[in-house]
Amino acid sequence: xxxxxxxLLTLAALAGHAQPAPPAQQTVPPRPAVAPKAAPASAVVKSxxxxxxxxxxxxEAKPQQSTGTNYTLFAAIIAALASLTSAYIALKSKDxxxxxxxxxxxxxxxxxxxxxxxxxxxxxxxxxxxxxLVNKKPESVGAIFKFFESDESFxxxxxxxxxxxxxxxxxxxxxxxEIIDFYNKLxxxxxELKVYENQNFNRDELINAGLKYYNSIDKVRIRVYLLMVExxxxxxxxxxxxxxxxxxxxxxxxxxxxxxxxx
Length: 263
Known about the structure:
The chain is mainly α. The chain has helices at about 1-20, 70-125, 150-165, 175-190, 205-210, 215-235, 240-245, 250-260; strands spanning about 45, 55, 125-135, 135-145. The strands form two sheets. Strands 1-2 form a two-stranded antiparallel sheet. Strands 3-4 form a two-stranded antiparallel sheet.
């Protein structure tokens, strides 16, 4: 844009100096009559009866005055530059609008994934105090997360984790890995306690597992929360997010080998 304006001003200056000033008219004073001589090749002889003879040299002929062609050229240049400038601005504006729309869709997808993360964190905010009878008196033996209360609540929580994993592409690598590791750990607990086998399921064993893993799950909750807050702050930086999707060099090389892209 700056280059177009500079070119426009330069052409305007050149066009302004291109119009020549009309030359001063030269008048050849009358000369006394002389004896007729042969006229030179570079002169034109004008003669009339009983009139003095005047000689007008070809070099003294009056130049034609400018007809304003330079102003027409100047106007054409301005019109052309104005059209080019308008087209350039319109193209840049359209490109910017397309990029903004694209980034908006990417951000919407990421926000949808973080909505599911928020649902997980809200679920983990519900804690149940566990009491057991000791000498016929109820005593607190610790706390468990609410989804350890029954096999139904455990299944529901696992389904929420699966929903987040399905949208893992739109999460950062760190946050996605935390959720996947958490899901795998709970899957192992569920298989060990036979949560998925209704006939052999023991609710007390599930509660005991909730007591056992409470601290480790709480650490996962805190890490996921901190990662989510950090990423929400930077969620408008779409380019940074896509750059972070690439694994390190060793993992990327291994993936390319598995895909047959390199040997």
